[in-house]
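Sequence in, structure out.
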Amino acid sequence: MIALMFCASFALIAQQKPNVYVLATGGTIAGVGTSQVQSAYTSGAITVDALLAAVPQINEIANVKGEQVANIGSQDMNNEVWLKLSKRVNELLERADVDAIVITHGTDTQEETAYFLNLTVKSSKPVVLVGSMRPSTAISADGPRNIYNAVACAIHESSKGRGVMIVMDDRIIGADDVSKTNTLSVGTFTNPNFGDLGIMYNGKPIFHRASAKRHTANSEFDVRNLSELPRVEIILSYSNATDLFVRAAVDAGVRGIVTAGVGNGNLTTVMQNALAEAAKNGVAVVRSSRIGTGPTAQWDEIDDDALGFAASWFVNPYRARVLLMLALTKTNDFREIQRMFTEY
């Protein structure tokens, strides 16, 4: 009788804890190094079960279930995995018995995946991406602490409705303005224009900003019935830049081009002329900047309306490519695309 009461009590406690799915995609956080002190390692070498086993403390705060969606270095992240991941997140969050999602991811393209999910997840339930800058075998590996904090952030009531977030290095970074800013530092991610959403302190999120941009449940984009995304390329501008890559992109049949321009998204005259011709022929063109902070403003040296371009404002070239791909699933009108870049 006592044994039955104990089992019933244990089951009740388990039911009261939040239910979190951890979807793994690989990356440094799942990497294995050749040495505990050397930098060389192989990404995506261990499974989600091994990752979770290294952080047994998360079982004290949540019922956690792991699922392997992919196991790659994030330099190889692609549209196929993005669509698979977004559809699985939406599918899980429709369930009443799933409270939040945590996604382990490599840091190379983590900002792009976070932004893609920020625009395509159709739920206000928390979605948190987490990675690490050191492989799992390194001395002072940052992965386990980051995973614990990611789960702790995801299950907290105050995390609902804030859009997709990245939790690393005790910081909460919003997908609306996320950038990787350092090749090696564990504090590589930040929100350079608007500031981080908050911090993790003693296993709890402390928020001091909310995103003013449209996202998740308030987003107009829906990829649940899509099997592919329009092709969009990024072209860098620099001194002496020619129209070579513009012509190559157009000849390859791209649907859109994002420029990483100099200064306030400026372009060489020859490159601008080639892009204007591409826009006349139906290729969507969005100007962004290679500069790390500040807007690519709509009204400056370049007359975007006259040329049929859109300006990205605070969306950097990498996230601009994501937004333009999604925009092109709905429209090819540069005015509508400009509206989207203003709102998202």
